[in-house]
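# step 3/5: fold
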Amino acid sequence: MARMKINAAILTTALALGGCSFASDALFPSLTGSDPKGGSSSASGGAAPAAQPAGQPMRAQAAQPGAASGPALGTTSFESPAVTPGQATGTFVGTKVAQMRGELQQLQGTMTRLNGQLQQVRNQTVLDSQAYHGTVAAMSARLQVGTTPGNPILMQQWNAAQSELDKINEDIAKMNSLANETASAATIAAYLLDAVRATRTLSGAVDEDHRQLTVLEDETSRTVVLIERLTTELSADVSRQQAYYGNERGNLNLLAIAVKNGQFYGASLATRSVVPQIAAADSVAAAPGVVGGGRPLLVIAFDKPNVAYEQALYTAVSRAIERKPNATFDLVAITPSGQPPLAASQARKNAEQVVRSLTNMGLPANRVRLSSSTSAEARAAEVHLFVH
Protein backbone atom coordinates (compact mmCIF):
# COMPACT_ATOMS: atom_id res chain seq x y z
CA MET A 1 0.00 0.00 0.00
CA ALA A 2 2.83 2.36 0.85
CA ARG A 3 4.40 1.82 -2.56
CA MET A 4 1.07 2.58 -4.29
CA LYS A 5 0.91 5.84 -2.39
CA ILE A 6 4.44 6.75 -3.40
CA ASN A 7 3.68 5.99 -7.05
CA ALA A 8 0.65 8.22 -6.84
CA ALA A 9 2.78 11.07 -5.54
CA ILE A 10 5.30 10.60 -8.35
CA LEU A 11 2.49 10.61 -10.92
CA THR A 12 0.87 13.76 -9.64
CA THR A 13 4.21 15.58 -9.43
CA ALA A 14 5.02 14.74 -13.03
CA LEU A 15 1.62 15.82 -14.28
CA ALA A 16 1.71 19.03 -12.27
CA LEU A 17 4.87 20.08 -14.06
CA GLY A 18 3.50 19.13 -17.48
CA GLY A 19 1.29 22.14 -18.21
CA CYS A 20 -1.54 24.37 -17.06
CA SER A 21 -4.30 21.96 -18.08
CA PHE A 22 -3.31 19.73 -15.14
CA ALA A 23 -2.54 22.48 -12.59
CA SER A 24 -5.13 22.12 -9.84
CA ASP A 25 -5.21 21.55 -6.09
CA ALA A 26 -5.98 17.88 -6.67
CA LEU A 27 -2.57 17.38 -8.24
CA PHE A 28 -0.52 18.12 -5.11
CA PRO A 29 -1.17 15.20 -2.71
CA SER A 30 1.26 14.21 0.02
CA LEU A 31 3.75 11.44 -0.45
CA THR A 32 1.67 9.14 1.74
CA GLY A 33 -1.56 9.91 -0.05
CA SER A 34 -3.11 12.51 2.27
CA ASP A 35 -4.31 15.88 1.03
CA PRO A 36 -1.93 18.71 2.03
CA LYS A 37 -4.96 20.75 3.14
CA GLY A 38 -5.91 18.12 5.69
CA GLY A 39 -8.41 15.95 3.83
CA SER A 40 -7.68 12.26 3.45
CA SER A 41 -7.37 10.51 0.13
CA SER A 42 -6.39 7.06 -1.00
CA ALA A 43 -3.94 6.31 -3.77
CA SER A 44 -6.12 3.44 -4.91
CA GLY A 45 -9.39 5.31 -4.58
CA GLY A 46 -8.70 8.18 -7.00
CA ALA A 47 -9.24 7.84 -10.72
CA ALA A 48 -6.11 7.70 -12.83
CA PRO A 49 -5.67 10.58 -15.28
CA ALA A 50 -6.49 9.72 -18.87
CA ALA A 51 -2.92 10.41 -20.02
CA GLN A 52 -1.48 7.75 -17.69
CA PRO A 53 -2.62 4.09 -17.87
CA ALA A 54 -3.67 2.65 -14.52
CA GLY A 55 -0.99 0.69 -12.70
CA GLN A 56 1.87 2.35 -14.55
CA PRO A 57 3.45 5.09 -12.41
CA MET A 58 5.15 8.01 -14.09
CA ARG A 59 8.91 7.59 -14.08
CA ALA A 60 11.63 10.19 -14.57
CA GLN A 61 13.21 9.92 -18.02
CA ALA A 62 16.88 10.68 -17.50
CA ALA A 63 20.15 9.94 -19.19
CA GLN A 64 22.42 7.38 -17.61
CA PRO A 65 25.05 8.84 -15.29
CA GLY A 66 28.11 9.87 -17.22
CA ALA A 67 28.90 9.63 -20.88
CA ALA A 68 30.46 6.65 -22.65
CA SER A 69 33.86 8.13 -21.91
CA GLY A 70 35.43 11.24 -20.45
CA PRO A 71 35.76 14.59 -22.20
CA ALA A 72 38.04 14.87 -25.21
CA LEU A 73 41.72 15.48 -24.52
CA GLY A 74 44.17 17.37 -26.67
CA THR A 75 45.97 15.35 -29.33
CA THR A 76 49.01 17.50 -30.14
CA SER A 77 52.47 16.03 -29.69
CA PHE A 78 54.82 18.87 -28.79
CA GLU A 79 58.10 17.97 -30.48
CA SER A 80 60.93 20.46 -29.90
CA PRO A 81 62.85 21.74 -32.94
CA ALA A 82 66.50 20.78 -33.24
CA VAL A 83 69.19 23.24 -32.17
CA THR A 84 71.56 24.20 -34.98
CA PRO A 85 75.22 23.76 -33.99
CA GLY A 86 77.69 26.62 -34.48
CA GLN A 87 81.44 27.12 -34.86
CA ALA A 88 83.47 28.79 -32.12
CA THR A 89 84.63 32.28 -33.11
CA GLY A 90 86.91 32.97 -30.17
CA THR A 91 85.11 36.19 -29.24
CA PHE A 92 83.33 37.03 -26.00
CA VAL A 93 80.05 37.24 -27.90
CA GLY A 94 80.73 33.86 -29.48
CA THR A 95 81.25 32.37 -26.02
CA LYS A 96 77.89 33.82 -24.90
CA VAL A 97 76.21 32.38 -28.00
CA ALA A 98 77.58 28.91 -27.24
CA GLN A 99 76.44 29.18 -23.62
CA MET A 100 72.90 30.19 -24.61
CA ARG A 101 72.78 27.45 -27.23
CA GLY A 102 73.49 24.94 -24.48
CA GLU A 103 70.72 26.44 -22.33
CA LEU A 104 68.27 26.12 -25.23
CA GLN A 105 69.25 22.46 -25.67
CA GLN A 106 68.57 21.84 -21.96
CA LEU A 107 65.21 23.58 -22.25
CA GLN A 108 64.24 21.49 -25.25
CA GLY A 109 65.30 18.36 -23.38
CA THR A 110 62.87 19.41 -20.63
CA MET A 111 60.15 19.93 -23.24
CA THR A 112 60.76 16.46 -24.69
CA ARG A 113 60.36 14.95 -21.23
CA LEU A 114 57.20 16.95 -20.50
CA ASN A 115 55.70 15.99 -23.85
CA GLY A 116 56.36 12.30 -23.16
CA GLN A 117 54.74 12.55 -19.71
CA LEU A 118 51.77 14.39 -21.18
CA GLN A 119 51.10 11.72 -23.80
CA GLN A 120 51.43 9.05 -21.14
CA VAL A 121 48.98 10.68 -18.72
CA ARG A 122 46.52 11.30 -21.54
CA ASN A 123 46.57 7.63 -22.51
CA GLN A 124 46.17 6.59 -18.87
CA THR A 125 43.27 9.01 -18.37
CA VAL A 126 41.42 7.47 -21.32
CA LEU A 127 41.94 3.95 -19.93
CA ASP A 128 40.82 4.99 -16.42
CA SER A 129 37.76 6.75 -17.83
CA GLN A 130 36.76 3.73 -19.90
CA ALA A 131 37.09 1.45 -16.88
CA TYR A 132 35.00 3.80 -14.75
CA HIS A 133 32.21 4.17 -17.28
CA GLY A 134 32.14 0.44 -17.91
CA THR A 135 31.48 -0.16 -14.22
CA VAL A 136 28.86 2.60 -14.02
CA ALA A 137 27.09 1.31 -17.13
CA ALA A 138 26.87 -2.18 -15.64
CA MET A 139 25.39 -0.77 -12.43
CA SER A 140 22.88 1.43 -14.27
CA ALA A 141 21.75 -1.47 -16.45
CA ARG A 142 21.11 -3.64 -13.40
CA LEU A 143 19.26 -0.88 -11.58
CA GLN A 144 17.05 -0.14 -14.58
CA VAL A 145 15.72 -3.70 -14.78
CA GLY A 146 15.19 -3.78 -11.01
CA THR A 147 17.14 -5.17 -8.10
CA THR A 148 17.04 -5.54 -4.35
CA PRO A 149 17.87 -2.63 -2.01
CA GLY A 150 21.52 -2.72 -0.95
CA ASN A 151 22.43 -5.42 -3.46
CA PRO A 152 25.95 -6.50 -2.32
CA ILE A 153 27.12 -7.03 -5.90
CA LEU A 154 26.14 -3.47 -6.79
CA MET A 155 27.79 -2.22 -3.62
CA GLN A 156 31.05 -3.89 -4.69
CA GLN A 157 30.70 -2.34 -8.15
CA TRP A 158 30.07 1.06 -6.59
CA ASN A 159 33.27 0.74 -4.54
CA ALA A 160 35.14 -0.23 -7.72
CA ALA A 161 33.69 2.77 -9.57
CA GLN A 162 34.74 5.07 -6.74
CA SER A 163 38.29 3.69 -6.92
CA GLU A 164 38.35 4.16 -10.69
CA LEU A 165 37.09 7.74 -10.37
CA ASP A 166 39.84 8.40 -7.80
CA LYS A 167 42.36 7.28 -10.42
CA ILE A 168 40.96 9.87 -12.81
CA ASN A 169 41.45 12.48 -10.09
CA GLU A 170 45.06 11.32 -9.75
CA ASP A 171 45.46 11.78 -13.51
CA ILE A 172 44.20 15.35 -13.14
CA ALA A 173 46.76 15.93 -10.39
CA LYS A 174 49.50 14.72 -12.75
CA MET A 175 48.26 17.15 -15.42
CA ASN A 176 48.37 19.98 -12.89
CA SER A 177 51.94 19.04 -12.01
CA LEU A 178 52.86 19.10 -15.70
CA ALA A 179 51.17 22.50 -16.02
CA ASN A 180 53.35 23.86 -13.20
CA GLU A 181 56.52 22.53 -14.83
CA THR A 182 55.44 23.97 -18.17
CA ALA A 183 54.92 27.38 -16.57
CA SER A 184 58.49 27.23 -15.22
CA ALA A 185 59.77 26.27 -18.68
CA ALA A 186 57.88 29.21 -20.16
CA THR A 187 59.60 31.59 -17.74
CA ILE A 188 63.02 30.20 -18.67
CA ALA A 189 62.25 30.41 -22.40
CA ALA A 190 61.14 34.04 -22.15
CA TYR A 191 64.29 34.94 -20.18
CA LEU A 192 66.50 33.15 -22.71
CA LEU A 193 64.88 34.93 -25.66
CA ASP A 194 65.48 38.31 -24.00
CA ALA A 195 69.11 37.34 -23.34
CA VAL A 196 69.66 36.36 -26.98
CA ARG A 197 68.27 39.65 -28.22
CA ALA A 198 70.30 41.66 -25.68
CA THR A 199 73.53 39.95 -26.79
CA ARG A 200 73.21 41.66 -30.19
CA THR A 201 74.05 44.97 -28.51
CA LEU A 202 77.38 43.77 -27.11
CA SER A 203 80.55 45.08 -28.77
CA GLY A 204 83.40 42.95 -30.03
CA ALA A 205 81.29 40.58 -32.18
CA VAL A 206 82.14 39.33 -35.65
CA ASP A 207 79.67 38.71 -38.46
CA GLU A 208 79.58 34.97 -37.67
CA ASP A 209 78.49 35.77 -34.13
CA HIS A 210 75.51 37.77 -35.40
CA ARG A 211 74.62 35.07 -37.92
CA GLN A 212 74.54 32.46 -35.15
CA LEU A 213 72.56 34.83 -32.94
CA THR A 214 69.93 35.16 -35.69
CA VAL A 215 69.58 31.37 -35.96
CA LEU A 216 69.50 31.02 -32.16
CA GLU A 217 66.84 33.73 -31.83
CA ASP A 218 64.61 32.03 -34.41
CA GLU A 219 64.91 28.65 -32.72
CA THR A 220 64.31 30.13 -29.25
CA SER A 221 61.22 31.96 -30.56
CA ARG A 222 59.83 28.69 -31.96
CA THR A 223 60.43 27.04 -28.60
CA VAL A 224 58.57 29.87 -26.84
CA VAL A 225 55.59 29.39 -29.19
CA LEU A 226 55.69 25.63 -28.62
CA ILE A 227 55.57 26.09 -24.85
CA GLU A 228 52.69 28.55 -25.16
CA ARG A 229 50.73 26.03 -27.21
CA LEU A 230 51.45 23.30 -24.68
CA THR A 231 50.35 25.57 -21.84
CA THR A 232 47.08 26.45 -23.58
CA GLU A 233 46.19 22.87 -24.51
CA LEU A 234 47.16 21.47 -21.11
CA SER A 235 45.12 24.15 -19.34
CA ALA A 236 42.08 23.22 -21.44
CA ASP A 237 42.58 19.54 -20.64
CA VAL A 238 42.78 20.22 -16.91
CA SER A 239 39.71 22.48 -16.96
CA ARG A 240 37.57 19.94 -18.81
CA GLN A 241 38.73 17.04 -16.67
CA GLN A 242 38.06 18.91 -13.43
CA ALA A 243 34.51 19.77 -14.51
CA TYR A 244 34.01 16.18 -15.65
CA TYR A 245 35.31 14.79 -12.36
CA GLY A 246 32.98 17.05 -10.37
CA ASN A 247 29.96 15.95 -12.41
CA GLU A 248 30.86 12.28 -12.11
CA ARG A 249 31.36 12.62 -8.38
CA GLY A 250 27.77 13.87 -8.21
CA ASN A 251 26.58 11.00 -10.41
CA LEU A 252 28.38 8.51 -8.19
CA ASN A 253 26.78 9.99 -5.07
CA LEU A 254 23.37 9.57 -6.70
CA LEU A 255 24.24 6.00 -7.65
CA ALA A 256 24.93 5.31 -3.98
CA ILE A 257 21.34 6.31 -3.20
CA ALA A 258 20.09 4.21 -6.09
CA VAL A 259 21.97 1.14 -4.84
CA LYS A 260 20.70 1.70 -1.31
CA ASN A 261 17.08 1.85 -2.50
CA GLY A 262 17.42 -0.61 -5.38
CA GLN A 263 16.00 1.96 -7.84
CA PHE A 264 17.47 3.73 -10.85
CA TYR A 265 17.25 7.53 -10.79
CA GLY A 266 19.34 8.98 -13.61
CA ALA A 267 21.92 11.73 -13.90
CA SER A 268 23.00 13.94 -11.03
CA LEU A 269 20.87 17.04 -10.48
CA ALA A 270 24.08 19.06 -10.83
CA THR A 271 24.35 17.85 -14.42
CA ARG A 272 20.71 18.62 -15.10
CA SER A 273 21.14 22.10 -13.64
CA VAL A 274 23.69 23.13 -16.25
CA VAL A 275 22.07 21.50 -19.29
CA PRO A 276 18.87 23.42 -20.11
CA GLN A 277 16.12 21.41 -21.77
CA ILE A 278 15.07 23.85 -24.51
CA ALA A 279 12.08 21.82 -25.64
CA ALA A 280 10.49 22.04 -22.20
CA ALA A 281 11.39 25.63 -21.40
CA ASP A 282 8.22 27.15 -22.87
CA SER A 283 6.00 25.05 -20.60
CA VAL A 284 7.20 26.88 -17.48
CA ALA A 285 5.05 29.93 -18.07
CA ALA A 286 2.10 27.73 -19.00
CA ALA A 287 1.84 26.34 -15.49
CA PRO A 288 1.35 29.29 -13.09
CA GLY A 289 1.47 28.21 -9.48
CA VAL A 290 3.53 25.10 -10.27
CA VAL A 291 6.91 26.66 -10.95
CA GLY A 292 7.44 29.76 -8.85
CA GLY A 293 3.93 29.65 -7.38
CA GLY A 294 2.63 29.35 -3.83
CA ARG A 295 1.58 25.70 -3.80
CA PRO A 296 3.94 22.90 -2.81
CA LEU A 297 5.50 20.87 -5.56
CA LEU A 298 5.72 17.88 -3.24
CA VAL A 299 4.51 17.07 0.28
CA ILE A 300 6.32 14.38 2.27
CA ALA A 301 4.43 13.15 5.34
CA PHE A 302 6.72 11.66 7.98
CA ASP A 303 3.92 9.70 9.63
CA LYS A 304 5.91 6.46 9.95
CA PRO A 305 9.55 5.38 10.23
CA ASN A 306 11.76 5.16 7.14
CA VAL A 307 9.55 7.02 4.67
CA ALA A 308 10.69 6.11 1.13
CA TYR A 309 10.54 9.56 -0.44
CA GLU A 310 13.74 9.80 -2.52
CA GLN A 311 12.34 8.49 -5.83
CA ALA A 312 9.46 10.99 -5.73
CA LEU A 313 11.82 13.77 -4.63
CA TYR A 314 14.28 13.13 -7.45
CA THR A 315 11.51 12.98 -10.04
CA ALA A 316 9.92 16.21 -8.86
CA VAL A 317 13.17 18.20 -8.65
CA SER A 318 14.68 16.86 -11.87
CA ARG A 319 11.55 17.71 -13.87
CA ALA A 320 11.41 21.17 -12.34
CA ILE A 321 15.02 21.76 -13.38
CA GLU A 322 14.28 20.51 -16.89
CA ARG A 323 11.76 23.32 -17.23
CA LYS A 324 13.69 25.94 -15.30
CA PRO A 325 17.44 25.15 -15.08
CA ASN A 326 18.15 27.95 -12.59
CA ALA A 327 15.27 27.00 -10.24
CA THR A 328 15.74 27.34 -6.49
CA PHE A 329 13.87 25.37 -3.87
CA ASP A 330 12.34 26.03 -0.47
CA LEU A 331 11.93 23.21 2.04
CA VAL A 332 9.51 23.96 4.85
CA ALA A 333 9.41 21.75 7.95
CA ILE A 334 5.72 21.61 8.96
CA THR A 335 4.70 20.80 12.53
CA PRO A 336 1.04 20.18 13.43
CA SER A 337 -0.34 23.00 15.59
CA GLY A 338 -0.38 22.41 19.31
CA GLN A 339 2.53 19.99 19.32
CA PRO A 340 5.32 20.30 21.93
CA PRO A 341 8.71 21.85 21.00
CA LEU A 342 10.20 18.38 20.58
CA ALA A 343 7.87 17.79 17.62
CA ALA A 344 9.13 20.96 15.91
CA SER A 345 12.70 19.79 16.42
CA GLN A 346 11.90 16.42 14.83
CA ALA A 347 10.19 18.12 11.89
CA ARG A 348 13.32 20.21 11.37
CA LYS A 349 15.45 17.05 11.40
CA ASN A 350 13.17 15.54 8.76
CA ALA A 351 13.68 18.58 6.54
CA GLU A 352 17.45 18.45 7.06
CA GLN A 353 17.34 14.80 5.98
CA VAL A 354 15.60 15.84 2.76
CA VAL A 355 18.24 18.54 2.21
CA ARG A 356 20.97 15.90 2.54
CA SER A 357 19.17 13.76 0.00
CA LEU A 358 19.03 16.65 -2.46
CA THR A 359 22.72 17.38 -1.91
CA ASN A 360 23.61 13.74 -2.54
CA MET A 361 21.52 13.90 -5.70
CA GLY A 362 23.77 16.72 -6.91
CA LEU A 363 21.68 19.81 -6.17
CA PRO A 364 23.99 22.64 -4.96
CA ALA A 365 23.35 23.51 -1.34
CA ASN A 366 23.00 27.24 -2.16
CA ARG A 367 19.89 26.49 -4.20
CA VAL A 368 17.95 25.11 -1.22
CA ARG A 369 16.51 27.19 1.60
CA LEU A 370 15.22 25.61 4.79
CA SER A 371 12.56 27.06 7.08
CA SER A 372 9.94 25.92 9.62
CA SER A 373 6.23 26.52 10.11
CA THR A 374 3.14 25.10 11.80
CA SER A 375 -0.16 24.00 10.33
CA ALA A 376 -3.53 23.29 11.89
CA GLU A 377 -4.35 21.05 8.93
CA ALA A 378 -1.29 18.73 9.19
CA ARG A 379 -1.88 15.43 10.97
CA ALA A 380 1.81 14.53 11.16
CA ALA A 381 5.18 16.14 10.63
CA GLU A 382 5.56 17.07 6.96
CA VAL A 383 8.13 18.59 4.61
CA HIS A 384 6.76 20.82 1.85
CA LEU A 385 8.86 21.42 -1.27
CA PHE A 386 8.38 24.68 -3.18
CA VAL A 387 10.14 25.70 -6.41
CA HIS A 388 10.93 29.25 -7.53
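# step 4/5: annotate
The chain has a mean pLDDT of 77.
# step 5/5: archive (pending)
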